[in-house]
Amino acid sequence: MIVTQLDLADVLKRSDLDPALQKIAGKVKNSQRITDDECLLLFQKGELGFVGALANHIAARLHNGKVYFNRNFHIEPTNVCVFTCNFCSYSRQYKHRDEGWEMSMEQMMDMVRRYDGQPVTEVHIVGGVHPKMNLEFFCELLSRIHAHRPDLHLKGFTAVELDYMFRKAKLSVEEGLQKMKEAGLQSLPGGGAEIFHPDVRNEICADKVDADGWLDIHGTAHRLGMHTNATMLYGHIEQYEHRVDHMSRLRALQDETKGFNCFIPLKFRNKDNDMSHVPESSIIEDLRLYAIARIYMDNVRNLKAYWPMLGRQTAQLTLSFGVNDLDGTIDDTTKIYTMAGSEEQTPAMSTEELCDMISAVGRTPVERDTLYNELKVYDQEPA
Ligand code: V47
Ligand code: SF4
Fold first, then answer.
1. Taking all residues of the chain, what is their mean pLDDT, rounded to a whole number?
2. Residue 264 Cβ < 6 Å to ligand 1
3. What is the pLDDT of residue 382?
């Protein structure tokens, strides 16, 4: 059952609508870009049904009812971290490393070997920033995984991890990325972006790479022919203006490089971290944000709802608000959101479950690879 009640034609007929919102609806109809001020207006005044109708229209135009997922697993080498992001429930400082985990090369290779003969297409490698796990260590890991399983797409390391590794190795961003690429790294995940604006960044994650550093790493990766993802951690202390600023910087880089594969809004979860006093956003606000991101980010084709963080029911709802990708099967290999209080305490979904979730809202499930090549279209009846 599809949730959104209005379609774009209904919206354009409404005589009671604010003229500025009417203008935005007209722009969406004509495939025109909206401005930063218009994006802010959508956050301030766009009701859920209105932004949902616009976002749905765009998603239908781009993807014609298809919703993507992939078969993947994560490796989280460590949760020991030199940084102290206030929203993080996952990391442990080096001096408390006995409370955390540090995987050896062999343990990580054992994880990879566990998937021998299984049709996974991607491994996602992300963790804390361990002072003793350096560029050389991770290049060896990449080469060994690649040698063992050349068909597996290696996506790994946030700009935060890379910035630290490259600085320690005294390499430029380009030199560092080139080395990792040679070792087998194919794309970068979108983490570490949080909120770019310094007024917020200095409050929530003051000590890690700043906005310019994050954007430089992703822009350089794009110029070296790698694709990357982009995220935004929302629903904490940021104002609507900060969201617009964040998406505006991403949209500008994408105009230049066209290297972002997808945009992933990440909902702040407040369990067991230094921001536990900050309430989580409501589902209505979550859905409005996804819809507005779909309308504003006109040059990033894919909008991902990462189900282990959002919970599968909310993730399913986002499919009627512009989202066309749910990420993957995960196989209970990530702890970031489990530890931050997500309802998904053992995040794993079979392809059947993912397909059912997608077809139940009248969309067509499509298995993709990391670069959004279509691997299989599942034409099944809604559950
Ligand atoms: O940068 C950490 C976020 C990110 C919390 O590219 C939190 O496909 C909410 O970026 N509440 C890392 N979010 C994970 C990440 C990611 C995940 C899945 C897919 C992809 C992709 C990227 O997790 C961090 C931060 O923004 N995070 N703690 C928290 N309490
Ligand atoms: Fe470390 Fe990442 Fe947690 Fe920040 S979000 S403390 S960089 S693991």
1. 94
2. yes
3. 43
CA of residue 209 to ligand 2 center, whole Å: 11
Cβ atoms within 10 A of the Cβ of 39, count? 25
State pTM to two decimals.
0.96
Cα dist from 351 to 106, 159, 213, 358, whole Å: 29, 30, 37, 11
Q: What fold characterizes domain 66-377?
A: TIM Barrel (3.20.20)
Residue closest by Cα to atom 8 of ligand 1: 189
CA dihedral defined by 369, 372, 376, 382, rounded to 10 degrees? Answer: 120
336: closest CA among 89, 125, 156, 103? 89
Cα 23 to middle of ligand 1, angstroms: 34
Query: CA angle at residue 268 from 264 to 273, to 5 degrees?
Result: 135
Q: Is 156 in the pocket of ligand 1 (CB under 6 A)?
A: no
Q: What is the C-alpha separation between 220 and 188, in angstroms, rounded? A: 11
Residue 2's pLDDT is 52
Secondary structure class of 367 (helix, strand, coil):
strand
